[in-house]
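Q: Could you fold this chain for me?
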Amino acid sequence: MSYLRTAPWGAVCLCFAAACFASPAPPALRAAVHQLWANNPEVEAARAALDAARARTRAAEQPVYNPSLALEGENADVDRRTVGVSLPLDLSGKRRARTIESEAAVRAAEAQLQLQRREVAARWLKAWSSATSATRQRTFGQRRVATMQRFDVLAAQRLAVGDIATSERDLAALGLAAAQMQEATLAGQEASALGVLAALGGAVDLPEPTEGPPPAAATFVPLAVDERTELLRARATQERAQAAVAVAERQRRPDPTLSLTGGSVRSGTRRDRVVGVAISVPLPVLNSGRAEVAAAMADADTAVAAQRAARMEAVIGEGLPAAGRLDVVSGEGRSVGPGVRWVLRGIRSNERYLTREEKDQLTAKQEPIGRPAATRAALIPIRKSPAWWELSQDERRRVFEEQSRHVGIGLEYLPAIARRLHHCRDLSESEPFDFLTWFDYAPEHEAAFDEMLARLRASEEWRYVEREVDVRLVRDETSPTAG
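A: Sure. Below is the predicted structure, expressed as structure tokens.
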């Protein structure tokens, strides 16, 4: 079975999804990050791009055409004086299409600004942590040098009165030299860390590091997959590309021009008033606009691919390298060839936490994997924390179903969503994941699948998940292994 994703090759035996977290920051640190955002050139460039997108939106909202004024005069056998006004009529909806495209561009620029701020803040926080650590280490190094200097002076005094041997005096001098060398190394590390901070911009006076343990897990607020900034940007970019197709299609459609002419015509002693109405339509003969539509559609296809790629995100912990195709291989599989980005292994096993009644309900309602209509799939690998595996079997069952309703929630979405679980931990505890879960469903059931995942991730069981990846796929109908 072969599935397409938008990103080189990856092979699997079956996989999981994405989230992001935020917690309160100390006021001084928050103020420093906001100052960084105000001064950093990368953030300024993203902000300028957003301002430009908003300006283009205002421009797109303006009328497409301006009226034209024509003055004509002719002296001949017949004298003619006329004034004409003409205005192309936007009957094809060019203005509306341009506005929709530019509004999507604004949403993409807003998401890009948020991503840029997040990326810069992450780099700055890492550099700030290194700088504060280096500063403290250098302070300790300076104290050590001061201590060794006092020890060196005392050793010289004791050598002068014969209390110690020359070798002991030399050891004190060597200790002082070692302390000075270490202090110089720490000073260099501090200068390097401060240089990284200076390059990023932001506060000159660094906030003090937070004392005490990190925030409790309960203070972290999970962000739904569809609310992740990367996905919002990809979705807005896709919407903009699709709107650009509409713009190109409307550009193909010729708009009529309505003209009104008035004036007078004099022939000899006779003078007549002239009033004329005309409608003209351009003929798309030399350029039909089809090439522009094809180019816009190609850009839209690229944007759709990027939007799908954004769905391969780490929900918790480290993600997986991007892959453009996923193969599901049964049995021992085949040898891994060049270009394979990653391989995940799992085996079918007995149900660990089900009662007989729950197993019968699942068997009665669940459809098999690989139905012809189920052209959408998700591979969700999960690794649970050591705390989960320290629980006894009955304790895990209590968390799994009595507290989290894992089976009960899944039953609500059968038979639309088919599921198959593979165990990795049974192969080896060194496998990167404990479970690989494969889902497939028809395109119209994707919203229900997302809802099911959101409910499961909000349960007590997910407190024990320390790594989760969500890989969304579309079946490759052209592959000889599809089906």
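A (continued): The first strand starts at residue 2 and ends at 4.
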